[in-house]
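Re: [ENG-882] Designed sequences occasionally contain unexpected residues at chain ends

Forwarding the minimal case from QA. Structure tokens:
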């Protein structure tokens, strides 16, 4: 029945596909049961074959993995046993060395002979002199024999080695060279020697333990037989020492190209490998090294043996798959017969299909027509919306523009750090004393750094005391400069967590003391490094490996500025016991003046219930404290689920929340998603207003465009902006007023009517600077002539009179100082014209050079527009132009 239901659906899909290609509707075709049966048989066969292949592949992988674990265990166990065996040999050799200090070699060998009988891994003990002659032996017949020609002896004698395992030697004990192990009837031994040295390190001979390879073969055979594996024992240099099958094939030969020494040693002391081994067999193998590094144990298992169980299970699986295939084919045959019975019904369905296709085509044509009718007005809506965005700036857009301006100003503050420090050192720094808003100055800093903190995943929060006055008197630029350094450092040294800027104030006599704290969860500061933090040109980490750069001047300037303003600065070290992390705290205080008059606290939210949703406990605490200071009843929760429950409970109790402040990122989703969920049950929640508090990297226009928010705040949410946003959100909607008529276009000729234009000769080689300066001066009503270098300036100055000459200092062909001397030194219409120097190099030395060359004034770059216009006497005209 399932196949019968699929047939009409397949036909509909075919018809739609042909129409999309312009081929028209397909001609009705008669059902073909045998074709369907053949396709079904092929599909079933492919599925069963795929299942069989997957299961067999998985089974073989598991078998190989099991073989790897087995060989690893055998190699590790055998290496551990050989380690203990060689420890016994080392004890015998060390005992002989200790006895030699008290008695002669012959006596020592007689004393040790009894012990050797209980050590199956040893056949004999030999003692040689410095020339390699055996002077004592635990077996007869070896005295006076020489081992001086053995490589292991030469390495002990001349290579300053303490221990050496020699190559296998034919015979039961050490015998003459020249014979092979095969010529010795397969009998061989393995020398294991320790050098004897005098008090001054001179070589005095060697103690040689003749190892019994039969012991190695026996141990290897027991492990190989128990686990169905092949075991080989090598030296660390790659010599084959013993095989579990007892054969001597390859014994004593160097196998440095074997997989163990080629791919692993000496970098790793254990490992697993699969491939063709040195005997030409395909194996899964592992190795382990004894703790002394004497032996390398290789354990290999034939790949065929490892896969034997998997292959037997594969045969059973194949039988099961075949049985399933037979059952499936029988079921398909029954379905085919059912399809034949439905042949006539299929013909009737074909007629119905043609009618359905015609109805579908009519529906598609209708939808296409309606789509066109809808798209036409929508195109107008989208286009007019784009034009509307090109008009006035809303509050958030204006904040972006102000942030760009603040960034440029602070960049100049960084570039002027050196000059500031020089003035501080010379005692020539003059502090301003003007009224300013503390919150606005804090906002400039936190908004500048909020996007950078958000990009690192760090939360930047700002905690302002509720009793903070609206206006104070002091130097806002210097306070902003100190905050710029401290917050910038906190972001640089903090990778995760949060950064908090806390502001409070204390009344003292006739002034206030402003207390600022910048704390973070960054790398922290060592206690012994705090003393150098506020020294000029120093850093807590001055090594060439340091991760964070910088001049080390910012904190020194902060210290001097704080002291100049009647306060101080301090740093708190990282938490005790924390090596890397723990965070840091920087605090500074300054004296600020009071502003006469009452300064009312922020109000307007009295009696309003506000829900705060934020996953950071510090943010929740700060925002609840701010809202409580404004008279609101604030409740904070950590995630969206808890927020929904709180909204539902408050509405049920008859005390719904009037507004909800949602964090942009929450543990169970983002704030915008939570806002959508609240909108779905808005009436049930008491119709709360929704305010999204997003990070500095969020595009507010995208968020507001969702139609679910009543307001948007960029983090960190300062008190005034939080209150204003909430008041706007909860305020009743106002009737839409008619749009005011557009303002009349400014009339450029107005400036010309006000009086004669000021003629300015601008001498500047940079095209961008030319454009900027010319635009500023032209808008202020000046007539500007541009000269590209000093030589062109001299030529222009001799050709026509000018009211002012703006002279850049560094230019090609002729610099500004030489051009000024030339203009002043030769008769012409501009010999006494007012010349103002322009240069990016600021300082008393450069100002002196300008005045000595004949300039009347000096302006540093980048040029401040208001300052330049005042010096040219164009400030009033510029103000009039803006008013017009």
């Amino acid at each position: 029945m399932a196949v019968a239901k699929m047939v009409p659906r397949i036909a509909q899909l075919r018809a739609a596909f042909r129409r999309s290609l312009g081929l028209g509707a397909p001609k009705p075709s008669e059902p073909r049961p045998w074709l369907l049966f053949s396709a079904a048989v092929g599909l079933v066969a492919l599925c069963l074959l795929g299942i069989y292949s997957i299961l067999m592949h998985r089974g073989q992988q598991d078998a190989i993995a099991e073989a790897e674990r087995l060989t690893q265990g055998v190699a590790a166990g055998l290496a551990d046993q050989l380690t203990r065996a060689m420890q016994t040999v080392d004890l015998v050799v060390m005992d002989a060395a200790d006895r030699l200090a008290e008695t002669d070699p012959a006596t020592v060998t007689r004393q040790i002979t009894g012990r050797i009988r209980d050590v199956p891994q040893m056949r004999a003990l030999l003692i040689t002199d410095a020339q390699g002659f055996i002077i004592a032996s635990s077996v007869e017949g070896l005295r006076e024999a020489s081992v001086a020609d053995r490589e292991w002896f030469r390495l002990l004698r001349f290579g300053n080695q303490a221990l050496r395992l020699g190559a296998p030697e034919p015979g039961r004990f050490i015998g003459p060279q020249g014979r092979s192990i095969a010529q010795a009837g397969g009998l061989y031994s393995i020398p294991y020697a320790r050098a004897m040295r005098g008090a001054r390190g001179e070589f005095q001979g060697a103690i040689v333990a003749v190892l019994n390879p039969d012991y190695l073969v026996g141990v290897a055979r027991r492990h190989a037989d128990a686990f169905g594996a092949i075991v080989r024992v090598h030296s660390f240099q790659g010599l084959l020492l013993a095989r579990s099958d007892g054969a001597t094939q390859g014994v004593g030969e160097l196998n440095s190209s074997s997989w163990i020494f080629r791919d692993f040693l000496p970098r790793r002391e254990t490992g697993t490998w699969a491939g063709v081994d040195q005997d030409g067999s395909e194996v899964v193998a592992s190795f382990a090294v004894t703790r002394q590094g004497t032996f390398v144990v290789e354990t290999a298992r034939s790949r065929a043996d490892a896969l034997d169980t998997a292959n037997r299970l594969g045969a059973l699986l194949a039988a099961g798959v075949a049985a399933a295939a037979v059952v499936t084919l029988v079921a398909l045959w029954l379905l085919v017969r059912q399809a034949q019975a439905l042949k006539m019904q299929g013909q009737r369905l074909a007629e119905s299909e043609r009618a359905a296709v015609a109805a579908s085509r009519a529906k598609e044509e209708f939808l296409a027509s309606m789509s066109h009718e809808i798209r036409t007005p929508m195109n107008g809506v989208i286009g007019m919306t784009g034009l509307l965005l090109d008009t006035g700036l809303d509050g958030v857009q204006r904040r972006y523009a102000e942030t760009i301006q603040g960034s440029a100003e602070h960049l100049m503050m960084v570039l002027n750090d050196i000059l500031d420090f020089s003035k501080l050192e010379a005692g020539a720094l003059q502090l301003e004393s003007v009224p300013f808003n503390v919150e606005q100055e804090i906002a400039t800093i936190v908004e500048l750094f909020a996007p950078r903190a958000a990009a690192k995943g760090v939360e930047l929060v700002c905690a302002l005391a509720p009793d903070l006055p609206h206006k104070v008197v002091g130097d806002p630029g210097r306070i902003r400069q100190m905050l710029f350094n401290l917050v910038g450092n906190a972001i640089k040294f903090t990778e995760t967590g949060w950064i908090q800027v806390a502001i409070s104030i204390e009344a003292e006599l006739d002034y206030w003391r402003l207390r600022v704290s910048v704390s973070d969860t960054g790398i922290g500061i060592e206690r012994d490094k705090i003393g150098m933090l506020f020294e000029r040109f120093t850093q807590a980490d001055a090594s060439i490996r340091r991760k964070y750069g910088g001049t080390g001047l910012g904190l020194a300037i902060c210290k001097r500025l704080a002291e100049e303003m009647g306060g101080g600065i301090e740093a708190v070290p990282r938490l005790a016991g924390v090596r890397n992390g723990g965070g840091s705290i920087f605090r500074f205080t300054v004296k600020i003046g009071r502003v006469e008059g009452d300064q009312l606290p922020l109000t307007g939210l009295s009696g309003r219930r506000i829900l705060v949703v934020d996953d950071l406990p510090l943010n929740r605490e700060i925002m609840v404290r701010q809202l409580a200071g404004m008279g609101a009843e604030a409740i904070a929760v950590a995630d969206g689920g808890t927020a929904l429950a709180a909204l539902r409970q408050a509405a049920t109790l008859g005390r719904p929340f009037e507004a909800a402040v949602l964090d942009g990122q929450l543990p169970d989703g983002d704030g915008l998603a939570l806002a959508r969920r609240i909108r779905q049950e808005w009436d049930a929640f008491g119709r709360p207003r929704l305010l999204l508090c997003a990070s500095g990297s969020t595009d507010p226009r995208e968020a507001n465009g969702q139609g679910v928010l009543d307001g948007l705040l960029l983090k960190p949410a300062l008190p005034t902006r939080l209150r204003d946003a909430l008041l706007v959100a909860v305020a009743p909607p106002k009737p839409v007023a008619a749009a005011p008529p557009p303002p009349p276009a400014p009339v450029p000729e107005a400036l010309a009517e006000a009086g004669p234009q000021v003629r300015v000769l601008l001498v500047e080689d940079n095209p961008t600077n030319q454009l900027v300066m010319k635009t500023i001066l032209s808008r202020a009503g000046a007539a500007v002539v541009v000269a590209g270098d000093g030589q062109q300036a001299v030529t222009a100055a001799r050709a026509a009179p000018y009211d002012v000459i703006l002279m850049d200092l560094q230019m090609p062909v002729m610099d500004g100082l030489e051009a000024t001397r030339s203009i002043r030194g030769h008769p012409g219409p501009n010999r006494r014209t007012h010349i103002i120097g322009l240069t990016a190099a600021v300082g008393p030395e450069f100002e002196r050079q300008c005045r000595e060359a004949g300039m009347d004034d000096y302006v540093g770059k980048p040029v401040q527009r208001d300052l330049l216009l005042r010096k040219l006497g164009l400030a009033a005209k510029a103000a009039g132009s803006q008013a017009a």
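QA comment: On inspection the terminal residues look reasonable. The longest strand covers residues 497-508. Proposing we downgrade this to a documentation issue.
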